[in-house]
Specification:
Strand order of the largest sheet: 8-19-18-17-16-15-14-9-10-11
Distance between the termini: 13 Å
Shape: elongated
CATH architecture of the largest domain: 3-Layer(aba) Sandwich
Structural class: alpha/beta
Number of strands: 20
CATH superfamily of the largest domain: Ribokinase
CATH class of the largest domain: Alpha Beta
Radius of gyration: 27 Å
Largest sheet: 10 strands, mixed
CATH topology of the largest domain: UDP-N-acetylmuramoyl-L-alanine:D-glutamate ligase
Helix content: 40-55%
Number of helices: 20
Strand content: 15-25%
Length: about 525
């Protein structure tokens, strides 16, 4: 499923109408009908509705909603934020006249009539927000801002038509007043405000309704939401052995940070790697051996609790004498001159590679690291959080947070690497400028070690699937494991190792999703 910005939605909307020749009134009719389908599922026991409509086509969608509710026997009032019908868009006016013909009640609301608006909302059970659509640019100005404040203050259940009024379709940023919705019904595709925080938390439950938009006009858009439809699962053949499923080499750890490499190793095994071997400094090998059962370990030179100077040479012999198929490096590795040199040597290894945590911090200290990444012949996956991305790009964290997609896409293209950028949402950027967002996961996962688990999962999967398929599945499964764990454990007590325990449940859940998930006309995002 693609994710759109306002201009992209407007482009496909316009071409659907003008080139595909689907009338705009048909699109509006489909939007209203789909919205009512959701409303009826949620509020079948409610009888009093008020539609607060703007003067544009979003308001027209709201009037169609009102007509369908009226036909269902509901009590419906339409409040239009305009001085008169002359201010309405053509399609809005058409649907308003139809609504009035069948007995619908309409009031035009300006700043002098806010008391009436407040009174009508007070008497209602559910508010339909159809003030502004995807073309709106914040902030809200004039008396409409007061309208939004009134709606929020009365705390009635709110259904937003397309997007909660006052939000921008183009980002998760918030500027000025906006509707706080319980449900949002959006059309054709989700928009960025439905996906990204903080805006998405004010959208409530989000539904995507097919309104007959011609999807052929969006072939150039490479921004996707990871859904079960996009996922491929690895397959095990009956006639096989452990080396058929990859040997993932986990490199990391230091005194005080042995847990990072232990978690990544366990996650690698749980995600399906045929073999997993941890390479750690000699000084922590005993504790690593004590905590790993299915996984193996190889100790290298240690100096002051960190990989020592000799480790860079020793890794050559390990690779030469081992049968490894992928490398996952950086978790808990710490950083000094020795680890920087060690990282330089690791980058020369001709295997698919996942670089995380201190692997990224060491990488950022290598003067020509972007050129090194570009020249690598095997896929390279970087898994930075915002701070690590700042060190790699030299951009401040606010700039990155405000421009996650562009930052990751530019970096991936420049270095030829795959970037998994981690924040309140996780996105994948590919060298060919594709973007994949995941909405799995929760705030309970904001705890030490969850990134190490993700790296272990990804390191295992890049042996089993094509690189993009591995990343999509790994990111989705990591978040889903956290969601499943929270159902049993709660958010406050969730820890990274819980995610490892729920990987098997996530695999089973994804399989069941794929078997039942269809391209339906109505899709709930999460």
């Amino acid at each position: 499923m693609k994710i759109l910005k306002a201009k992209e939605m407007a482009f496909t909307d316009e071409n659907t109408i003008n080139l595909t020749k689907i009338p705009s009134l048909v699109l509006m009719e489909n939007a209203g009908r789909g919205t009512v389908e959701v409303i009826n599922n949620y509020f079948s026991d409610k009888n009093k509705f008020v539609v607060v409509a703007g003067s544009g086509n979003n308001g027209g969608d709201g009037v169609v909603v009102a007509r369908y509710l009226l036909n269902l026997g509901k009590e419906v009032k339409v409040l239009i934020l305009a001085d008169s019908r002359e201010k309405l868009s053509k399609d809005h006016l058409h649907n308003l006249e139809v609504f009035e013909t069948i007995g619908g009640q309409v009031n035009f609301i300006n700043e002098k009539k806010l008391a009436k608006l407040r009174n009508e909302i007070k008497k209602s059970e559910v508010v339909i927000d159809a003030i502004f659509g995807t073309g709106f640019r914040p902030p809200v100005k004039g008396y409409r801002e007061k309208v939004i404040q009134i709606i929020n203050s009365l705390e009635k259940p709110v259904v937003a038509v397309d997007i909660p009024s006052g939000l921008s379709a183009n980002s998760g940023r918030i500027e000025g007043s906006f509707i706080k919705a319980n449900i949002t019904v959006t059309f054709a595709y989700p928009k960025l405000c439905h996906i990204l925080y903080p805006a998405s938390q004010y959208c409530g439950d989000i539904f995507v309704v097919d309104i007959s938009i011609d999807r052929n006009y969006l072939k150039e858009i490479k921004r996707y939401l990871i859904t079960p439809q996009l996922l491929k699962l690895p397959v095990r053949k009956k006639d096989s052995h452990k080396y058929n499923y990859g040997h993932n080499l986990i490199i990391g750890g230091s005194v005080g940070k042995s847990g990072a490499v232990i978690m990544a190793s366990k996650a690698s095994t749980k995600a399906g790697a045929g073999l997993t071997t941890a390479i750690v400094p000699q000084c922590i090998n005993e504790i690593v051996e004590t905590n790993l059962i299915e996984e193996m370990s190889i100790p290298l030179d240690c100096h002051e609790g960190i990989f020592g100077k000799k480790a860079a040479k020793q890794i050559k012999n390990v690779i030469k004498n081992g049968k490894f198929s992928s490398i996952t490096v950086g978790m808990g590795m710490s950083i000094n001159e020795n680890t920087i040199n060690f990282m330089r040597e690791i980058l020369k290894i001709k295997l698919p590679m996942v670089i995380d945590a201190d692997g990224l911090n060491n990488l950022s200290k290598i003067e020509n690291f972007k050129e090194i990444l570009r020249k690598r012949k095997q896929p390279t996956v970087l898994t930075p959080h915002i701070g690590e991305m700042s060190r790699l790009t030299k951009l401040d964290t606010k700039t990155i947070l405000d421009n996650m997609e562009d930052t990751a896409k530019e970096f991936a293209k420049e270095t030829g690497s795959y970037v998994i950028l981690k924040s309140s949402r996780v996105l994948i950027a590919t060298p060919d400028e594709e973007i994949y967002y995941s909405i799995q996961g929760n705030e309970g996962m904001a705890t030490a070690g969850t990134g190490d688990v993700l790296s272990g999962i990804i390191g295992a999967l890049i042996n089993r699937l094509e690189i993009k398929d591995a990343l999509k599945l790994g990111v989705y499964m990591h978040g889903l494991s956290g969601d499943l764990a929270v159902e049993d454990i709660g958010k406050e007590s969730l820890k990274a190792t819980d995610l490892i325990d729920y990987i098997p449940d996530a695999y089973k859940k994804i399989k069941s999703y794929k078997e039942s998930y269809k391209n339906e006309l109505l899709i709930k995002l999460k």
